[in-house]
Amino acid sequence: MRKRARGTRLTCRSLVAAASAALVALTLAPTGAQGATPARESRPVYSYDDAIRESVWVDTRLDGDGDGRTDRVAVDVVRPREAAQRGRKVPVIMDASPYYACCGRGNESQRKTYDADGDPVQFPLYYDNYFVPRGYAFVAVDLAGTNRSDGCVDVGGRSDVQSAKAVVDWLNGRARAYTSRTGGERASARWSTGATGMIGKSYDGTVANGVAATGVRGLETIVPIGAISSWYDYYFAQGAPLYNSGPEWLSDYVESPEARERCRAVQQRLVDGAPRSGELTPLWAGRDYVPDARNVRASVFAVHGMQDLNVRAKHFGQWWDALADNGVERKVWLSQTGHVDPFDFRRAEWVRTLHRWFDHYLLGYDNGIDREPMADIERAPDRWSTDRVWPPRGTAGAVLRPTGGAAPGVGTLSLKPARPGATETFTDDPRLDETDWAAAVDTATPAKAGFITRPLGRDLRLSGSSRVTVTATPSTTSAHLSAVLVDLGPDTIRDYAASGEGITTLAERTCWGASTTGDSSCFKETKARTIDVGHTVFSRGWADLGGYEPDALTPGQAYTVTIDLHASDHVVPAGHRLALIVAGTDKDLVDPPDTTPRLSLDLAGTAAKLPLVGGASAFDRAVAGPAPAPADSRFGGVAEPRQIRPIPGGSTR
To answer: How much is the pTM?
Structure first.
């Protein structure tokens, strides 16, 4: 549900932190680097080649593997040597991840590497290469149960979050660390200012969300990229399962070989606590960060692909709304890609923006980024627009209603309700997906019901999260529903369903920071992978007709369910049509029920509440005006979705 947009709030806490950090920043750089005027940008004045590279093990104060001693997590650190020699403290950029050994990070799947003494050599991604010369430390944390850490992976639960939170506490003098995994020699973080920014894509960004939701002091900002906000919503859609496995599969995938042996009891608890029936068990309540948005002290710079079919944009939408309701300082980039890092779809602008973001929130530089537009939205491949706040002011929910048409399953979509008793029927066909339905939206087919506006006379923009309420009567004891929004008209879009999810990786490399023999700052360039289409599915959602309850449905009885659609920002251009499609199983995106139901939709009890810029009056104006000449719609849609592996951060294709 779209909630009221709020502007960026500068709290008393953040103002004090920024002022303190600014004083540190002025003493941080070598003499003459910034001169006498206040700094506006950190410069690469420190040697990356000579940087201190070390490993410590932070005590999490948990015993997740039940071995009788508290777990220690491995923390690899790289920081400027010159700052340490001069007694100058530095802020920290941190990426806490389960992927440093099993799978790698980034488009090139980089892993951590170590020398013969066990000291870190390669830190994946460019954060270390770029930011350490600019006066930051970079810290790479192995979550509990992964790589060189003790404990067990618990997929978003207490151990995962505490793995990273304990490191923030250590950086602020509130936790203990040691120079080895089992020894007693203490390691200090007196070199740190305590100001920490967490960043990461997918699972890594999810952990950042979870740590921020604890309200831990010292965490000044987070940058979650394609991140989960509720683990239930990663594995289920309102009672309907999205994968043929639960969190135990992911836990086994990322855990170190030794952890798999000692963590079987934890694995079994994941199995027992996450039944495939879709119940909202206590396990899921402990992995839902959205209710704890009220605790967030950090600013948030969120990035999400609006066509991400792995960590779907619902995760961003509900987290963003909760942050807005609690006045959290925030910024967002929304791309047309799938599960892709902004370093791989808008590289130069991303590095520049992230640099300024960290300079402001970790060093206290008054560079104006907090006063710039809140949102960057990708309108077409590599073409972006901005909004002062997001969703933009004037956005309001408009209730659009389906009515029957001349052919079965081909109806209209307008502000006028259907007559009482009007129905449409369809039969679930698990062989079909949203692209099949959209391609046949103007045709009476047995597997879907489509409702379409007339060609628009002016552009219509949807901005935020939509909801579709469906009243349906099933013929069997189980039923899953899909609701999708479709832009019917030709366009050139990022090919999010192809390998790369909207990007193509090139052979050429560009460099972002300093390099050493073992850690290069040079990464393969990318370009947008595009496709010409005749229609675009731009938002979708799924649910079990019975909702979160696992009880069997009663055939012949009507049920009402409200389906949360994924957040989006899409302009349906003049001349195009907007369609709502209601169907059953969306192949490879939601699992089919154990029966093959025929469903009768009560049209008077079915409606879509869409966040339209300008509200219902904008819709009225768009459908009332004269439509342009019909556009060429010879092209089809994107390729059908491929089965997704439940690995946040891995390829979704």
So the answer is: 0.92
Pairing of strands 90-97, 137-142: parallel
Residues contacting 400, CB < 8 A, separation 6+? 413, 414, 415, 580, 607, 608, 609, 610, 619
Catalytic, out of 304, 315, 339, 566: 339
Among 170, 228, 198, which residue's Cα sits nearest to residue 297? Answer: 198
User: For residue 506, which phi and psi values (nearest 5 degrees)?
Assistant: -100, 170
Strand partners, 305: 335
Separation CA 123–CA 142 (nearest Å): 12
Q: Residue 202 catalytic?
A: yes
Q: Is 308 a catalytic residue?
A: yes
The full DSSP string for 482-534 is EEEEEEEEEEEEE-TTSTTSSEEEEEEEEE-S--BTTB--EEEEEEE-EEEEE
482-540 pLDDT per residue, tens: 999 999 999 999 999 999 999 999 999 999 999 999 999 999 999 999 999 999 999 99
Is the model's pLDDT at 584 over the cut of 60? Answer: yes
Active site residue 491: no
Statement: residue 23 has pLDDT above 50 = no
Among 202, 465, 539, 600, the active-site one is 202
Q: Are 602 and 522 in contact (CB under 8 A)?
A: no
CA distance from start to end of the chain: 29
User: Which is it for strands 219-225 and 192-201: parallel, antiparallel or unpaired?
Assistant: parallel
Asked if 603 and 431 touch (Cβ cutoff 8 Å), the reply is: no
Residues 423-451: tens digit of each pLDDT: 999 999 999 999 999 999 999 999 999 99
CA contacts within 13 A on the Cβ side of 540: 28
Rounded CA-CA distance 332/376 in Å is 6
- What are the φ and ψ backbone dihedral angles of 395, each rounded to 5 degrees? -75, 130
pLDDT band at 549 (very low <50, low <70, confident <90, very high): confident
| Selected catalytic residue, list 95, 308, 341, 544 | 308
What is the residue-wise DSSP string for 85-116? HTT--EEEEEEEES-TTTT-BTTTTB--EE-T
